[in-house]
């Protein structure tokens, strides 16, 4: 049976990924050659570049594919408290594909240029927020009256720094670190108090709208499942350099869907999927379902979800939020503070009348 153009492209992409994985595993990223990858895939060099803009983009895509294929065990040992959950999260991390020899050049390639360093920092901010939300749900701590909302994003950042550092050393100095020691260290970080709290930013101007909301089906990296974001809530469209702004919506207790967009999808979209999916796989293994963040994270590589939200052109600096109610977009804001302004309005509209 003759394949359609889309089917042929998907088949060739899969062949390139398989060939690249074998080439990187055998020769390492530095010594791997695009011509050798094309030969392994039985395709032309041009066919490889038609799917990936360069070797680094292909490397990120190979690692992302490995992580996304990783399955959560049928009966994962999820933590019942912060200490147990952080231990389980660290255990999942040090046994993931992102911790093996194939990933030994990952951090060096990210650090090689500003075009990857800045998005990577923001992706880590998003990972820290997701881990923080899970920890907070597992063990809610109410601040004293009049005090700002407590959070553990900074603690989550320390945990992620520990694990990324351990991965880097596992590749650069095999045998130096005992994985069990890394797991134990992360468990003990559960009691670290960094005096972390969140302050609401200034809000952007909210503009009323009234148009149909017709979102495409999308992949939620947090839960590892496809869904259609048709429920009432807030959709935040953020470029890779603006991802930390999603916390503005989350802290207003709104139901939030984050569309992650980029102006360079060929190279940066695989990087985004890799970094976020790796943490989310660990979250699903380490935390009970009830503690998983309500936030949905969608890698919007084609900009389809952004377009549904009224953002036809995206870049790494995009920052737009819309509010959805009963199948219609009813409000939007753009620029700094957009997520806070739109989600605060959603919270006010959902609050019960005074005295009830």
Give an account of the 3D structure.
With 356 residues, the protein is α/β, with parallel strands linked by helices. The chain folds into three domains: 5-51, Arc Repressor Mutant, subunit A (Orthogonal Bundle); 82-191, no CATH class; 207-350, 3-Layer(aba) Sandwich (Glutaredoxin), CATH 3.40.30.10. The protein is built from 13 helices and eight strands. The strands form two sheets. A six-stranded mixed sheet has the order 1-8-7-4-5-6. The protein has a two-stranded antiparallel sheet with strand order 2-3. Strand 4, helix 10 and strand 5 (256-261) form a beta-alpha-beta unit. Helix 7 (114-138) packs parallel to helix 11. The radius of gyration is 21 Å and the shape is globular. Mean pLDDT is 90; it is low at 351-356.
Offer a quick outline of the entry.
The chain is an alpha/beta fold and 356 residues long. It has helices at residues 5-31, 34-41, 45-51, 55-69, 82-94, 106-110, 114-138, 153-172, 179-188, 246-250, 265-286, 304-308, 338-350; strands at residues 207-212, 218-220, 225-227, 233-239, 256-261, 296-299, 319-325, 328-334. The longest helix is centred in the N-terminal third of the chain and has 27 residues, at 5-31.
Number of helices: 13
Low-confidence stretches: 351-356
- Give the CATH superfamily of the largest domain: Glutaredoxin
SSE order in H/E notation?
Answer: HHHHHHHHHEEEEHEHEHEEH
Multimeric state = single chain
Strand content: 5-15%
Based on DSSP secondary structure assignment, what is the total number of beta strands?
8
| Second CATH tier, the architecture of the largest domain | 3-Layer(aba) Sandwich
- Sheet with most strands: strand arrangement: 1-8-7-4-5-6
Structure class: alpha/beta
How widely separated are the two ends? Answer: 65 Å
What's the helical proportion of residues?
A: 40-55%
Radius of gyration: 21 Å
Q: Judging from the principal axes of the Cα atoms, what is the shape?
A: globular
Q: Identify the CATH class of the largest domain.
A: Alpha Beta
Return the domain count. 3
CATH topology (fold) name of the largest domain: Glutaredoxin
**Main beta sheet:** 6 strands, mixed
Write down the overall mean pLDDT: 90
């Amino acid at each position: 049976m003759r394949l359609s153009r889309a089917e042929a492209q998907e088949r060739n992409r899969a062949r390139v990924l398989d060939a690249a994985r074998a080439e990187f595993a055998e020769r390492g990223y530095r010594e791997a050659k695009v011509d050798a990858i094309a030969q392994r895939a039985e395709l032309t060099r041009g066919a490889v570049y038609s799917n990936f803009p360069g070797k680094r983009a292909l490397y990120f895509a190979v690692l992302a594919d490995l992580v996304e294929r990783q399955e959560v065990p049928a009966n994962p040992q999820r933590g019942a408290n912060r200490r147990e959950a952080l231990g389980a999260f660290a255990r999942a991390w040090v046994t993931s594909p992102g911790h093996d020899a194939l990933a030994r050049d990952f951090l060096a390639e990210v650090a090689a240029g500003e075009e990857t360093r800045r998005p990577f920092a923001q992706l880590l901010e998003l990972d820290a927020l997701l881990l923080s939300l899970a920890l907070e749900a597992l063990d809610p701590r109410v601040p004293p009256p009049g005090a700002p909302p407590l959070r553990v994003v900074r603690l989550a950042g320390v945990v992620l720094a520990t694990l990324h550092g351990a991965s880097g050393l596992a590749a650069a100095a095999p045998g130096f670190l005992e994985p069990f020691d890394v797991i134990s260290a992360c468990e003990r970080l559960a009691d670290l108090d960094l005096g972390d709290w969140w302050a609401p930013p200034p809000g952007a101007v909210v503009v009323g709208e009234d148009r149909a909301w017709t979102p495409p089906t999308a992949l939620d990296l947090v839960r590892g499942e496809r869904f259609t974001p048709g429920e009432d809530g807030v959709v935040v469209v953020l470029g890779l350099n603006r991802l930390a702004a999603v916390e503005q919506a989350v802290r207003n207790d709104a139901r939030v869907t984050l569309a992650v967009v980029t102006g360079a999808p060929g190279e940066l979209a695989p990087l985004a999927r890799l970094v976020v999916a790796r943490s989310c796989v660990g979250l699903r293994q380490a935390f009970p379902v009830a503690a998983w963040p309500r936030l949905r994270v969608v890698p919007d590589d084609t900009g389809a979800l952004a377009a549904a939200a009224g953002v036809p052109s995206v870049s790494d600096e995009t920052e737009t939020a819309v509010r959805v109610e009963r199948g219609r977009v009813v409000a939007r804001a753009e620029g700094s503070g957009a997520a806070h302004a739109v989600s605060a309005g959603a919270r006010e509209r959902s609050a019960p009348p005074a005295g009830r």
